[in-house]
Amino acid sequence: MRVREHLTLSTAAAVAAAPWLKKDTWIPFAASILIDVDHYLWYAVSHRTLSLRNALAFFNQADPPQTASMKFMHQPLFLGLLLFLAVRLRSRLLLLILAGLLFHVSLDVVHITQMSRLKRTLSEQAKSVCPECNRFADELQLHTSYFSNNLLDRYNPKHFIVLCPECHERSHQK
Ligand SMILES: [Zn+2]
Ligand SMILES: [Zn+2]
Which end of the chain has fewer CB within 10 Å, C or N? Predict the structure, then answer.
C-alpha cells in the first residue's frame, strides 16, 4: 500500500482515537507512517548511499526484489520484540507505538491478499499468455493500469492487467 494511502487511513484512525488518546494521539499516528522508513534504511545500508531519489527509483521498479530484511520493522519478530519490551518496561509509549505499527501492518496484509487474489484470477483468465506480446509466460506479473482513489473501487479487476516480465518492465519505463 502506498504511503499517501497510509497517511489518509491513519489520519482517519487518529481522528477516531483522539477522544481516548487525547494529546498522545500523534504517537501511534507517527509510528504508523514512519514504519516505512525501514525500506529506506535497508536501501541506504545495502547500497551504501543516502540518495532518496535512487531509493525511490529502486522501489518503483516493475518488480522490485523483496526480502524480509527490507521491511524489518514490519516483521513479526520486530513487533514481538517491541511487545515484549513494552510489557517488560510497562511503557505506555511503546504500546502506543506498537498500536500504530500493527495498524499499518494489518492494512498491508489486506492489500497483499487482494493483490495476490487479483494476480491469480487474471493469470487464469489470460491462460498464462501475455496480452501485450501474446507470448506464453511461466509467471505473469500484476500491473496497475489505473489507480483508483476510491478505496472501494481500488481492487476492481478492471484496473489491473497481467503482463510478462519484459512487457511489465517496458510499461514502467514509458
Ligand atoms: Zn509480454
Ligand atoms: Zn506495474
Answer: C
